[in-house]
Amino acid sequence: MTEQATSALDSSALEWRREAGQVPYTSALAEMEQRNSAISAGEARELVWLLEHPPVYTAGTSAAADELLDPRFEVVEAGRGGRYTYHGPGQRVGYVLLDLTKRGRDVRRFVHSIEGWVIDTLSAFGVKSWRADGRIGIWTHDPAGKEAKIGAIGVRVRRWVTMHGFSVNLDPDLAHFSGIVPCGIEEFGVTSLAQLGLDISPQQWDDAMIAGADAFLAQLSADPGE
Questions:
Q1: Which of 2, 5, 160, 200 is deepest in the core (most CB within 10 A)?
Q2: Does domain 3-221 correspond to CATH entry 3.50.50.60?
Q3: Catalytic residue numbers?
């Protein structure tokens, strides 16, 4: 295996940032923009940034005005794909900034690999989750047995360097989601690990994500024919 291939599959080659406090969404967005440019120019390492935000509604490029039901929190144009999403305390957000020129230039595979990484991490805590055809995000069953969203996915690629990533509901205030139609899907609700009876701290979640990072990178970098 060449040195380049080894680096592409080894999560220790990435920079990992884990925030204990809340980072304002607009500040994180500005940092992502700067880091995207630096990675593209070969001036910085790829980055996975795990954090939480104060309450905010973010609008993707497909957001429809009538899906913002109650703008009780700041509303920010995110620049990523998708529609309206809520971020807030108790929700772990992962921003994944990778150079796809080293990883096949396949945006669909990147999204699929992130989904798999989140699904595998939830499985490590005993939660079965899945993708759903025609519905963006990560899905599971709520305590009533109804299908509900537990994680959101939204990405942007600029200069073949990725931005944004995923969010997973550890223990947010689920009532805060009622101010929007989450990801434009009205007929399904949202749930959290706490609602499912699991007390998972941000540190525990981050540790599990890091433990599964090499498998994520291997999937992302795999030969499509494998």
A1: 200
A2: no
A3: 183
